[in-house]
Each structure stands twice: as C-alpha cells, then as structure tokens.
Design a protein that fits this description.
The chain has 342 residues and is an alpha/beta fold. It has 13 helices and twelve strands. It has helices at 2-44, 72-85, 97-105, 121-129, 160-167, 176-179, 198-206, 225-233, 244-249, 272-276, 293-298, 300-320, 327-340; strands at residues 61-67, 89-93, 112-115, 134-143, 145-149, 157-159, 189-193, 219-222, 238-242, 254-256, 258-260, 284-292.
Amino acid sequence: MKNFKSLALMLAFILVVGVLAACGGSDSEEGTGSEGEAATENSEASGDSGETSEEGEAVSGPIAIDGSSTVYPIMEYLTYEYSQNNPDVNATLNSSGSGGGFKKSTVGEIDLSNASRPIKEEEQALAEENGIQLEPLELAYDGLSVVVSAQNDFVDSLSIEQLQQIFLESSDATMWSDINSEWPEEPIEIFSPGHDSGTFDYFNEVILEEEPMKEGENTTLSEDDNVLVRGIESNPNAIGFFGYAYYAENSDNLKVLGIQDGEGSEAVKPSPETIQDGSYTPLSRPLFTYVNVNAYKEKAQVRDFVEYTLNNAGKAAENAGYVALPEEKYQEQMEKVQGWAE
C-alpha cells in the first residue's frame, strides 16, 4: 500500500511538471511568434521596402505620377512593387507624354513627372512662376530605336541622311525606292510618337534638327507606343521609332535598324552594351523622373517613394528592358534628395 501511494504521488508530480512545462512552452512559442512577427514588420519597415517614413511611421496617402510613355514601364514596375508593401499608399500612374507630364507638374498637379528628355527652359520658367521646384532624377539609359516590321526583308540599316529623307516634311521621298533604287516601289508608312512625347522631341532634335516632320495620309502619330508597335509589326512598308524597351518586348515581330552616324562610320544597333558605352549614337539618352521638391518635403509617402525609387531603379530599368545606371550614380542622387528635407 505504501508503495502504491508513493507511486501515485510520483505520477501526480510528473503530471504537474508536464502541465507546467507545456504551459511554459506554449507561452514561449507565442512570445517567439509575436517577436518574430514584430521583427519581420520592423525589417520590412526599415527602409528597403519603403514601407515607413524616416520617423518610423507607416506611410499613407496619394502619389500622382504622369509623363513619358518611354519611362512608363520602369515606373509601372516600381509602383506595383512599392504598393505590395504599402497598401495604404495610392500611387496613380498615367502616361500623357513628357510634355503632358510637364504641363501638369509645372502647375503642381502631380508629384512626379516622368520624362525622356530634359525639361525645356519655358517649362522650367513656368514652374518657377508658380513657386514649384522641379528637380530631375536619372533612372536609366535608353537607346531610341528605329524599327521596321520583321516582314521587311530589304532594310537593315539607315544613315542619318536617309532618316532625314524618310521623315522630313521638306523631303520629296515617299517611296522606299526613293531612298534606295534597289528597294521596293512601295509607299513609306511612318509611325511616330505624338508631339507631347519626349521621344518625338529627342528624335526631332538630333535627327530632324528641329525641322517639321512629315504628316498626313501615310503618317500615324500616337502617345501610346503600343499603338505604334502594332501598326509597324503588321506592315512590311512601315517604319517608326520609340524606346528600346518596346522593341525588346516585341523583337519577334520587329526588326531594329542599325544607325550610321557620319560618313564612313559603321552602322550600330541599339543593345544594352552599345547604349551604355555610348557607341549607339546619336540616339542614346538618359531617362528621368522630375520630382516636385515641395511634395517631397511635405508628404511622407512621396519622400518614401522617391527614396524607394532610387534604391530600386536599376532593377526596374533592367526588368523593363532598359539599361541601369552605375550603382554609384543612384547613391549620389540619393544623397542629393535626402538633402532636400534638411
């Protein structure tokens, strides 16, 4: 009987210890889980994800972005990724062309203005009249690409002079045979970005030398580069131009042309290598977003997104088919923008 009582007491003691251990283990697991979640949240909010402001508070509110269709794929990637970690920030992205973006940014309607060209003097002056400070950030390099349909079997490269024959209003050339007698006697059909496009402005400056471009029955203008892509890829007599990313995305149905810059020089096609090393001339160029500095100072979500953009622009550029800047260039710009808040 004594042995039985001892055994019973021992079993009861073991049971109590087991219950206490289970309770202690449960509390420990719950505590670890809670701490792990907090650590994850703190890690996500540390700056890499762009989830919080410098003060450590979650950011919220609207961000308005508009401008270049060329820059659009870069900013589309950035706004999507940013929104995944910042659901309380409503970043709206539109594409009305570089000029269209500047029309809005110079009067304070948007926070960021994407551009495939530098701001014009008259646009900068208008912004200053309205008390708005616009500052550029370089996001990537682009090679403005001259393309024809993959069905085109007669053109592989063009000189600057031939491009001028094709596109200038003052040129009498209307047939491919007018450019080269060995080419078909078929009408040249032009697809071009519209006049609000920074891509049009850039082409107009470096190729057409500010002279009027042909317009009329055989010319299609659009601010939407996808409209240009569809028009060219289905027409063997078409030619047009837009940012390199739109060619890269549709390279199965388009043929990019080499450009001969100067008599006796070799024709060079755009590629990540020729765009970055500058050998694709004169159509290599930087891509920008212009920041409303007042919005950066006054809106935590704008400040957070701008810094997120600089931390992730290289990846976004490559994802969109453009060429990233050297990493030190992004860091130099980060130091500049952080100085705005001081």
